[in-house]
Amino acid sequence: MTHSLWTIILAAGQGSRLAASTGGTRKQFLHHEGHPLYWRSVLTMSAVPELAGVVLVFPPQEMEQRSAELENLKNISDPGVRILTTAGGDRRQDSVRLGLAALPRDCTRVLVHDSARPFFSPALVQALLAGLTDDVHGVIPAIPVTDTIKQVEDDLVLATLPRETMRAVQTPQLFPADLLRRVHEQALREDWTVTDDASMIERAGYSVRIVPGESANLKITTPEDLRVLATPAPLPVPCTGFGYDVHAYGGNRPMVLGGMPIAGAPFVKAHSDGDVLLHALCDAILGCLGLGDIGEHFPDSDDRFENISSGILLSEVMDKARALGLCITHVDLTVIAQVPRLAPHKEAIRGNVARLLELCDQQVNVKATTEEHLGFTGRKEGIKAVAVVTATRKQA
């Protein structure tokens, strides 16, 4: 099935808690880095390759003003996706329902996002997309609660809630579009009042999955939060990493490429599981980070890495990448071997690498080639792989 992904960005709120601090300007229209706050969410969403378009929900009384503003923003920096507008309602859930009505009918998946959360990343959206499977009806980002949480009534504590089971929920939130429409119609008929779309999905009896949120994805709510807008965030730095690895044939490790076993292929000589493709990928990611190579982090002299899955090594490299704010945007992989024939395996490898990196398939490319019987690969003595990773990282 072909999926069409859209996002609804809610910019119709009153912002009453901040009115005194902003001179009456609604928070979503405050300027940050020269643009209204909601525009940052538009630009971030437009960096997601799967996104087909955006529906912006504005206050009804400001539609003409905001539509003119939007045209100017598009002329300055066209995000490259369709942008539609619609008027919002009295409550957040009313604005979502009206946004859903403005979506094209071929939209199959929808992200619902609050414009007061302008600092999320495209990587968060990719994590949501990876989490929406056939057995799950919604995916939301959440972060652990660090404070002790009390249940209170009339200023008296009723109970202390176990914070290890608590999560603070963020947006964007991802749902199948048709399901979210049906649940909103049910909520309207039965007069539900909810604070987010996930709670509406839950109340209707459907399952919701959590993926790790981002600590930077804060919501501009109080006057103290305005300090974040006063300090421009440093722009991410583009970077490229190159990786190369080679393994000889004739060993005792069954061939694995990109985490996928290759049946009938020559066995390889290796200390780990010998996944030449993931080794090259690890090197490329480490190159983006300026952290040396895979041999420095997982030396073949260390018995801990004897026959270890290269997927585990990649997971550890990705932990370093996330900690340092690396956001991978594309991966290009090439396997060079005379044997085996890899054409039947490329799509499976591509899909598995995308899963390991929490990317969509379109952000991963896998190629296979021979060297026309030249060199050690041409003599069927071994296999090699190269990887190129493009990414952005936080400024030091």
From TrEMBL:
GO terms for molecular function: 2-C-methyl-D-erythritol 2,4-cyclodiphosphate synthase activity; 2-C-methyl-D-erythritol 4-phosphate cytidylyltransferase activity; metal ion binding. GO terms for biological process: isopentenyl diphosphate biosynthetic process, methylerythritol 4-phosphate pathway; terpenoid biosynthetic process. The keyword Transferase applies. It catalyses: 4-CDP-2-C-methyl-D-erythritol 2-phosphate = 2-C-methyl-D-erythritol 2,4-cyclic diphosphate + CMP; 2-C-methyl-D-erythritol 4-phosphate + CTP + H(+) = 4-CDP-2-C-methyl-D-erythritol + diphosphate. Pathway: Isoprenoid biosynthesis; isopentenyl diphosphate biosynthesis via DXP pathway; isopentenyl diphosphate from 1-deoxy-D-xylulose 5-phosphate: step 2/6; Isoprenoid biosynthesis; isopentenyl diphosphate biosynthesis via DXP pathway; isopentenyl diphosphate from 1-deoxy-D-xylulose 5-phosphate: step 4/6. Residues 1-238 are annotated as: 2-C-methyl-D-erythritol 4-phosphate cytidylyltransferase. Residues 239-396 are annotated as: 2-C-methyl-D-erythritol 2,4-cyclodiphosphate synthase. The record marks 163, 219 as: Positions MEP for the nucleophilic attack. A divalent metal cation binds at residues 245, 247, 279. Gene3D superfamilies: 2-C-methyl-D-erythritol 2,4-cyclodiphosphate synthase (3.30.1330.50), Spore Coat Polysaccharide Biosynthesis Protein SpsA, Chain A (3.90.550.10). The keyword Lyase applies. Residues 240-390 form the 2-C-methyl-D-erythritol 2,4-cyclodiphosphate synthase domain. Bifunctional enzyme that catalyzes the formation of 4-diphosphocytidyl-2-C-methyl-D-erythritol from CTP and 2-C-methyl-D-erythritol 4-phosphate (MEP) (IspD), and catalyzes the conversion of 4-diphosphocytidyl-2-C-methyl-D-erythritol 2-phosphate (CDP-ME2P) to 2-C-methyl-D-erythritol 2,4-cyclodiphosphate (ME-CPP) with a corresponding release of cytidine 5-monophosphate (CMP) (IspF). In the C-terminal section; belongs to the IspF family. Belongs to the IspD/TarI cytidylyltransferase family. IspD subfamily. PANTHER family: 2-C-METHYL-D-ERYTHRITOL 2,4-CYCLODIPHOSPHATE SYNTHASE, CHLOROPLASTIC. This is Bifunctional enzyme IspD/IspF.
